[in-house]
Design a protein that fits this description.
The chain has one domain. The chain is α+β, with helices and mostly antiparallel strands and 63 residues long. The chain has 3 helices and 4 strands, in the order ββααββα. The radius of gyration is 12 Å and the shape is globular. The strands form 2 sheets. The protein has a two-stranded antiparallel sheet with strand order 1-2. The longest helix has 15 residues, at 21-35. It has helices spanning 13-18, 21-35, 58-62, and strands spanning 2-4, 9-11, 45-46, 52-53.
Length: 63
């Protein structure tokens, strides 16, 4: 689990253990970027490790 807010980041131990620190930083930056844009951003994130993370609609993430 990874939750990112304007001033707070929370990650559970499993996420911290499974995701490379460089990839985690890219995910955090991307999530903050998405939070600034229209709520229907839908794209894929390419991580430094070569993993591609499919995008999710921000509307879906907000519940």
């Amino acid at each position: 689990m990874l939750a990112v807010g304007p001033r707070l980041v929370m990650a559970n131990p499993a996420m911290q253990a499974l995701v490379d620190p460089g990839d985690r930083e890219v995910l955090l930056e991307h999530m903050r970027f998405v939070m600034q844009r229209h709520p229907t951003v839908d794209e894929t994130v390419d991580l430094p490790s070569g993993v591609q993370v499919p995008g999710a609609r921000l509307d879906d993430l907000r519940g």
